[in-house]
Write a structure and sequence with these properties.
The chain has eleven helices and ten strands. By secondary structure, the chain is α/β, with parallel strands linked by helices. The strands form two sheets. It has a seven-stranded mixed sheet with strand order 4-3-2-5-6-8-7, with helices on both faces. A three-stranded antiparallel sheet has the order 1-9-10, sandwiched between helices. α2 runs parallel beside α3 (84-95) and α7 crosses α8 (235-241). The two termini are 26 Å apart. The relative contact order is 0.16. The structure holds nicotinamide-adenine-dinucleotide. Nicotinamide-adenine-dinucleotide (NAD) is lined by residues 39-40, 43, 80-86, 103-106, 109, 126, 144-147, 152-153, 155, 173-177, 205-208.
Length: 280
């Protein structure tokens, strides 16, 4: 629902008296957002597939095959942000035979990735210097950064793009949060790319929308346990019993129950616990 940036929808939902649970704030035991993970998995995998095809000459790319050929070196993929999107983009890039480097600001994340990919991936701390070094030598860059609760950090400046190889590709998956490249602007599946300074920019905001059958199944798998709980216990008891589902509650019978939404829109906040206890 992303209510913090949508005052009209918020006002309408509050006025409706409905109970509204948002996918984007339901949590799990590890503090992750389980209902967003399937879309990030798909976006990471598909972005790599798409970006690889844009390296082809007729798509404006430099005309290389990521996997190389016998006696010809593979392409170099640089992934900025080693979370769900980055990890899944990496799986596909390795499958295509590319050489892969992942940059992240979290050393714990880099350690996990090193173990997960059994040393087949170059894991690098993301700093101004490493970004400069890796982005300018990459054939394909995937932007997959996320700063929870904030807009994506612009890790690739327009100036850095000017220093990239001609015909390189940037897939800015973080475009749905504003993008992590200064040049990025939202594009669609019908017209997915534009070229700036000889570099192909792929900036589709809803990447999983291209594969709705896979995306719907993946989303349904993640959602079904919560739907079952709501059907079995009813909305109020399910919310009282399950703190993770309760985190998802944004509006309950005319009251706003997420502090960050109330803050952003200057509206009154009520804790989910207090409104649930007060209702019968
Ligand atoms: N376009 C689409 O269709 C689509 C679909 C799903 C997700 N997304 C977007 O993809 C982005 C990544 O999502 P995710 O689920 O992988 O998030 P995530 O939280 O799992 O991972 C984000 C990673 O970025 C790292 N990071 C933060 N700042 C960094 C920096 N300056 N340099 C390098 N790494 C940095 C974090 O440490 C983290 O590991 C988000 O912006 C999300 O909104 C887009």
């Amino acid at each position: 629902m992303h209510l913090a940036s949508d005052p009209q929808q918020t006002a309408d939902l509050v006025a409706s008296g409905a109970s509204c649970i948002a996918y984007e704030t339901v949590t799990d035991d590890d503090g992750k957002l389980p209902l967003l993970i399937p879309m990030s998995e798909i976006a990471g995998r598909l972005a790599m597939q798409e970006a690889a095809s844009h390296l082809e000459k007729h798509h404006g790319g430099m005309g290389i095959l990521l996997g190389g050929a016998t006696g010809v070196e593979p392409g170099h993929v640089v992934i900025i942000g080693g979370g769900v999107v980055g990890r899944n983009a990496c799986k596909i890039a390795l499958g295509l035979g590319a050489k892969v480097s992942i940059l992240d600001t979290s050393t714990a994340k880099l350690e996990q990735l090193k173990t997960l990919f059994e040393g087949r991936v170059n894991c690098v701390l993301s700093t101004t210097e490493s970004l400069q070094q890796y982005v300018t030598t990459a054939d394909l860059v995937v932007g997959a950064v996320l700063v929870p609760g904030g807009a994506a950090t612009q890790v690739i400046s327009a100036d850095l793009v000017r220093k990239m190889k001609p015909g390189a590709v940037i897939a800015d998956v973080a475009i749905d949060q504003g993008g992590c490249c200064e040049n990025s602007r939202p594009t669609t599946h019908k017209d997915p790319t534009f070229i700036v300074d000889g570099v192909v920019h792929y900036c589709v905001t809803n990447i999983p929308g291209a594969v709705p059958r896979t995306a719907s199944k993946a989303l349904n798998n993640a959602t079904l346990p919560y739907i079952r709980e709501l059907a079995r216990s009813g909305i109020r008891s399910a919310l009282m019993q399950n703190p993770h589902l309760r985190h998802g509650l944004n509006v309950y019978r005319g009251k706003l129950t997420r502090p960050e939404v109330a803050d952003a829109l200057g509206l009154e906040y009520h804790s989910a616990e207090s409104v649930l206890k007060a209702s019968s």
